[in-house]
Design goal:
By secondary structure, the chain is an alpha/beta fold. The chain has three domains: about 5-100, 3-Layer(aba) Sandwich (Rossmann fold), CATH 3.40.50; about 140-365, Alpha-Beta Horseshoe (pyruvate-formate lyase- activating enzyme); about 370-420, Nucleic acid-binding proteins (OB fold (Dihydrolipoamide Acetyltransferase, E2P)), CATH 2.40.50.140. The chain is about 30% helix and about 20% strand. Strand 1 (about 5-10), helix 1 and strand 2 form a beta-alpha-beta unit. Helix 6 runs parallel beside helix 7 (about 235-240) and helix 10 runs parallel beside helix 11. The longest helix has 24 residues, at about 340-365. It is globular and about 60 Å long. It binds iron/sulfur cluster. The site of iron/sulfur cluster has 10 residues, from helix 4.
């Protein structure tokens, strides 16, 4: 039997895309995949370094897989944590055979064997342009750019992922075709800035032509992570025309002074106005956003503004995250640290309010007819639910996987809904 590999992926959707590409190159090298880590000759852990908790999970996973691996199997650590803390990781984990950055064997410590993850030529643009196998599920993420040109106070991503590099439209479209998925989910660190680093080449620095082109190839095109200042009328039109009226707005807070301390654009009033504009154009539009709670200097007044916003905006989905200080970020040096107990109280208050809103919005759809895409037997989603992020629609198990079906909502339980076929 040939060499077998096992890939474990941690972290965000963007990491899943990197893993898919890694799998593509390993398959192209003649290796076969296994889902049993103890049977693999090569174990790859694609790590996440976003916050302390994610780093801990990455280390725990590496150690667990290290114990399970069979004699002679190689273990390679890649992904954000390898990129950001490569030297420290290699030193702290002598069991690991190689610590490699994004698709490129970097940071190979002296005395350690260099194990090329692939013998394919090393790409110049991270893993962005590597081949990818056909999608195993009816939906697939497609990463359209790497890096970020912004400098949000809390975020370390630009410091280790580098400035934005947008992919060619043609390579993105080729990948979309290869995947043969019914739904394509476009991702990047800062999606709406796609093309700005190449203004003369890619649709004059706008994502709109790309969204239109992808929507021409697949039934559903979904966009994740939109920085609010770039949500132009043209982009809203393109999203509404893509058959997925879903707006994932990366807001982070609503208090203007706090947003400036975060080195970000906007304020609650502008956000509410934009949301109202979109709802006016399409009352069915679904919204998601993320907020950071307890950023240095967040006052009671800032928090009250956020609560009032959440109440008024009635978004379908919201994530609230505790601020976590990250090395090398602007916020590390800010005063006004928020007490962890207070931070947790604020988080609980916001989450409770949003859980009720999400549940009420789901309840309000009982009796509605929906088009759903069935991801696996009995589990489907409408345009309102992003895969792996939002809730699901439970459907009868006889509905064919990978197909669209018309269903009627008969019940709702928190974020999830139950539907019968028509
Ligand atoms: S949070 Fe800000 S700096 Fe970090 S990736 Fe997103 S837009 Fe870029």
């Amino acid at each position: 039997m040939g060499q077998r590999f096992y890939v474990e992926t941690l972290g965000c959707p963007k990491n899943q895309v990197d893993s898919d590409k890694l799998v593509g190159t390993l398959l192209a090298d003649g290796m076969t995949a296994t889902d049993d880590a103890s049977a693999a000759d090569l174990v790859v852990v694609n790590t996440c370094a976003f916050i302390e908790e994610a780093r801990k999970e990455s280390i725990d996973t590496i150690l667990a897989l290290e114990e399970q691996r069979k004699d002679g199997a190689r273990i390679v650590v890649t992904g954000c944590m390898a990129e950001r803390y490569g030297a420290e990781l290699a030193e702290a984990l002598p069991e690991v055979d190689q610590v490699a950055g994004f698709g490129v064997p970097v940071n190979v410590p002296a005395g350690k064997k260099l194990i090329p993850v692939s013998t394919a030529p090393i790409p110049t643009l991270d893993l962005l342009n590597l081949p990818r196998p056909k999608s195993a599920s009816p939906w697939a993420y497609v990463k359209i750019a790497e890096g970020c040109d912004r400098s949000c106070g809390f975020c370390a991503i630009p410091s280790f992922r580098g400035p934005q590099r947008s992919r060619d439209v043609s390579s993105i479209l080729a990948e979309v075709e290869q995947l043969e998925a019914k739904e394509i989910v476009l991702v990047a660190q800062d999606l709406a800035s796609y093309g700005k680093d190449r203004p003369d080449e890619l649709g004059a620095g706008s994502i709109v032509p790309l969204v239109q082109a992808v929507s021409g190839l697949v039934p559903w095109t979904r966009l994740l992570y939109l920085y609010p200042s770039d949500l132009t009328d043209e982009l809203i039109d393109a999203i509404l025309a893509s058959n997925v009226p879903y707006f994932d707005l990366s807001l982070q807070h609503v208090s203007k002074p706090l947003l400036r301390r975060m080195r970000r654009w906007g304020d609650g009033q502008r956000f509410l106005q934009r949301i109202a504009d979109i709802r006016q154009r399409d009352p069915q539009a679904a919204f998601r956003s993320n907020f950071i709670v307890g950023y240095p200097g967040e006052t009671e007044e800032d928090h009250d503004q956020l609560l009032a916003f959440v109440e008024e905006a009635q978004l379908d989905w919201c994530g609230f995250f505790a601020y976590s200080p990250e090395d090398g970020t602007y916020a590390m040096d800010l005063d006004g640290t928020v007490d962890p107990h207070l931070m947790n109280e604020r988080l609980a208050e916001l989450r409770e309010m949003q859980d009720d809103i999400t549940a009420a919005r789901s309840d309000a759809t009982i009796g509605d007819t929906l088009t759903v895409l069935v991801d696996e037997p009995g589990v489907a989603r409408s345009t309102r639910e992003a895969p792996e992020i939002d809730g699901i629609v439970e459907v009868p198990t006889h509905l064919a996987v990978g197909e669209f079906h018309q269903v009627r909502v008969v019940d709702a339980m928190g974020p999830d809904r139950v539907a019968d076929s028509l």
